[in-house]
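Duplicate of #3305? Posting structure anyway:
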């Protein structure tokens, strides 16, 4: 299978828990490569734009407030089947339903503060990567 890219966020709760490295280790151990990465403190406008598809949902205000409550790490992950693989590493949206050993089972406190984001399809991955990274900021493997 060809290499695929996905977009990932380590959300403010997980950054506050000081588990950026632990989460990066999960990605790398699963064969995903970090090809772009940066720390950001999202503005309200950035968070609203990123989650625009949820703008009519009842949890939208709380989601934007949470996502702007502290710094996040945003990254591009590359590997075989990266979109699905990252979703498996993360576990279910609600940590109460997440399988043991997934990021959300281990690091998330609730469905509202659930440690990480991962694109849900290759199309959303492309859109989300472009939302946060220019082409020059992505450094694919050369050796
Ligand atoms: P994400 O986009 O953050 O990776 O999460 P996801 O695909 O697993 O879930 P999604 O349906 O896209 O929802 C985005 C985020 O909104 C919050 N949410 N809260 N209270 C609720 O019922 C509810 N549902 C979703 C979660 O923080 C979720 O990650
Ligand atoms: Mg989603």
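Output from current build:
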């Amino acid at each position: 299978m060809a290499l695929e890219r996905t977009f990932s966020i380590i959300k403010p709760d997980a950054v506050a828990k000081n588990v950026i490295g632990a989460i990066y280790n999960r990605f790398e151990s699963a064969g995903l490569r970090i090809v772009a990465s940066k720390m950001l403190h999202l503005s309200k406008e950035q968070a609203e734009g990123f989650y625009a598809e949820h703008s009519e949902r009842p949890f939208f205000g709380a989601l934007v407030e949470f996502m702007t409550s502290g710094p996040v790490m945003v990254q591009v992950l590359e590997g075989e089947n990266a979109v699905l693989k990252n979703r498996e590493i993360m576990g279910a949206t609600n940590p109460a339903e997440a399988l043991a050993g997934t990021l959300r089972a281990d690091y998330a406190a609730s469905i509202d503060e659930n440690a990480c984001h991962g694109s849900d399809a290759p199309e959303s991955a492309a859109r989300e990567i472009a939302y946060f990274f220019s082409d020059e900021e992505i450094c694919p493997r050369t050796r």
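Confirmed duplicate; merging threads. The domain at 3-41+72-137 is CATH 3.30.70.141 (Alpha-Beta Plaits). The first helix runs from residue 12 to 16.
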